[in-house]
Amino acid sequence: MAIDALRGFDMFWIIGGQGVVMTLLALLKVPRPEWFARQFDHMPWIGFSGWDLIMPLFLFITGASIPFAFSNRRRRHQSTASLYLRVFRRVVILFVFGMIVQGHILAFKLDQLHLYSNTLQAIAAGYLVASIAQLTLPVIGQLWLTAVLLVTYWALMMFVPFAGHPGGTLEGDANFALYVDHLILGHFEDGKTYTWVLSSLGFAGTVLLGSLGGHILRMEKRPVERVGYLLAAGIGCLLGGWLWSFHFPIIKHIWTSSMVLWSGGWCYLLLGVFYLVIDVWGLRRWAFPFVVIGMNAITAYMAWNVLPFGSVSQRLFRGLADHLGENGGNFLMATGTFALIWLLLFYLYRNKTFLKV
């Protein structure tokens, strides 16, 4: 249950939870120091905030689910060929969903079509590598693969010169990952400072770290020992990412190897805490709203991006919101918008409708 709850906790912030929390704090007049406010926005380049953890956590949890999913399918005697077919089909669907979220898939204008520029597509790339690793490598091999991917990415970014720039150039408009995107994606790029093709090595690293977390949860150890392993992995990744950042800075835009370890450390700690509280101590009721979201995470992500929940909330609650003052009205609108999508997900949950890709 911890995996579903943590996935839902992550999605909560994506589908309107941030607005609910921030407007509630404003309504209650809770002081928000500068360091706290920074956690709700992306870092412009070097550095890491709480908001920067959302995408890595999404990839990490995808990986944590892989050992469970493949084990279940093996128990149903599904062939290796059918598993590969399912993996490739899921990768294609996620890439198409990513283009749908971009909003230009049916524009029929090549200058508006961005082939690779979305979180779902990053998940697809990482999931492809981690799934093949799950099917072909033992756990220790998956660990070594993670290390090889991160070291390879570091070496390419720090030592390969490009377009007149020396190796190790890490600027928003000049870095080797962006150069590779220019070469491969060309006019299909989205024109932002986020990178994708070469950064897929880092995406795969994040998903593989999650997959290793899933293996820890499946270990034949006492639950409290699993918690210990998760917390130890978290502390180790945080330390490794911090040390590596002195040479290869933590930059989410280009998904640096140090960022993979740093964010992975926080993901392990969160998974350890959620597992301890929910599955070991049995304190589950508080997590139910997150489980509802987490059981249909892709549905929640797609619905939030393509359906007008904000407009519906305006029609339903705007009149009342105008009588509650600025802070009260903002809180009602944010809560109403979030409630609409959560109730849709709750309806699916009650009817045991879990949409998979």
Can you characterise this structure?
The protein contains 14 helices and 2 strands. With 357 residues, the protein is mainly alpha-helical. It has one domain. A two-stranded antiparallel sheet has the order 1-2. A hairpin with a 2-residue loop joins β1 and β2. α1 crosses α10 and α5 crosses α8.
Give the key terms:
357 residues; mainly alpha; 69% helix; globular
- Please tell me how large the radius of gyration is: 21 Å
Strand order, biggest sheet? 1-2
Mean pLDDT: 93
How many H/I helical runs?
14
Task: Give the total of domains.
Answer: 1
Low-confidence segments, given as residue ranges, are none
Question: Main beta sheet, described?
Answer: 2 strands, antiparallel
> What's the helical proportion of residues?
55-70%
Question: Could you tell me how far the N terminus lies from the C terminus, measured between alpha carbons in angstroms?
Answer: 20 Å
The strand count comes to 2
| Structural class estimated from helices and strands | mainly alpha
Brief account:
The chain has 357 residues and is mostly helical. Helix 1 packs across helix 11 (288-294) and helix 8 packs parallel to helix 10.
How would the blueprint of this fold be written?
Elements: H1 2-27, H2 34-38, H3 54-75, H4 80-102, H5 119-136, H6 139-159, E1 170-171, E2 174-175, H7 176-185, H8 200-217, H9 223-244, H10 257-280, H11 288-294, H12 297-306, H13 309-321, H14 325-350
Antiparallel strand pairs: 1-2
